[in-house]
Amino acid sequence: MKYAITFDIGTTGVKTCVFEISDTIKLLGSASKGYPLYVFPDGGAEQDPDEWWEAVCDTSKKAVADAGVSPDRIEGISFCSQMQGLVLVDKDGNAIRRAFSYMDQRAREELKKGIAHGIQVAGASVPILLKSLAITGAVAASVKDPVWKYNWVKNHEPENYKKIYKWLDVKEYLIARMTGRCVMTRDSAFGALLYDLKHDCWSESLCKTLGVNPAHMPELVRSTDVVGGLREAQAKELGLKAGTAVFGGGGDASLIGGDGCCGGDG
After folding, report:
1. What total number of domains does the chain contain?
2. What DSSP state is assigned to residue 253?
């Protein structure tokens, strides 16, 4: 028998499950905990990464206890997560500010200046529209898209912008906290709308077109990749074994149609 723990990181809370994996997958234990969504009159919507972590740690211990499995026997950690968040971290992997939820709509001027100019189709500049479609298969044409939140920080919080080491999504922040590595799975990268599908890399050209420093984009990994081992201090907080394999996992939209939050390859 093998055992895995999975974290489903939603907008309102985390759902944590322990599974027994053999010829079949069996749910042995689970726990959940909520956390706030901070909403502001100007369209802002944020969450505190420390509150995600606290909920993950609390539910990890409860789910393992509910499963009746020794933490030493849990061999893997994976994720299902809300997508198109924006978590900006420094070189130590610490969040520079609260994370932007997908629902944040403050970057109206950034969107207008970045894409809504010249000859347009559906509100998007035709040259940028065609370039984006050719490279990523999609277009950052919504105020909710994370590239405009990134530019909002550049314009409204220059001191925070100077501290940026990497741009992460929600589960990627938790992976960085667990392993010390800043990565992004390809399904999350697609949601950033800067991922070159043909060449399997970040598009430096599109980053520059949309005002993003390419150096801020993290290493790309697959959802099924082992990113690293769980670090000692974080293992104690989670009630798990140091060195436990941490997988990339998947975003909620890319895992639709699956049977839970074991992770896939978007």
Report:
1. 1
2. G
Residue 29 domain flag: yes
| Length of the chain as a residue count | 266
**How far is Cα 249 from Cα 184, in angstroms, rounded to an integer?**
10
Cα–Cα distance, 12 to 103 (Å, whole number): 12
Q: What is the CATH number of the domain that holds 18?
A: 3.30.420.40
Name 221's bridge partners: 185
DSSP 3-state of 190: helix
Q: What are phi and psi of 57, to 5 degrees?
A: -65, -45
3-class secondary-structure state, position 125: strand
Neighbours of 231 (CB within 10 A): 17
Among 107, 96, 98, 100, smallest CA distance to 86 is for 100
The structure tokens 């509150």 sit at 51
Tokens 């420093």 label which residue?
A: 213
Residue 265 belongs to some domain of the structure: no
264 found inside a domain: no
For residue 91, what are the CA distances in angstroms to 26, 157, 182?
Answer: 39, 18, 9
Expressed as residue numbers, the domain containing 31 is 2-255
pLDDT by residue, tens only, the chain of 266 residues: 899 999 999 999 999 999 999 999 999 999 999 999 999 999 999 999 999 999 999 999 999 999 999 999 999 999 999 999 999 999 999 999 999 999 999 999 999 898 866 555 555 677 788 889 999 999 998 999 999 999 999 999 999 999 999 999 999 999 999 999 999 999 999 999 999 999 999 999 999 999 999 999 999 999 999 999 999 999 999 999 999 999 999 988 777 754 333 333 33
Q: Which residues, 6+ apart, have CB-to-CB distance to 18 below 8 Å?
A: 3, 4, 5, 27, 28, 29, 30, 63, 64, 66, 67, 69, 74
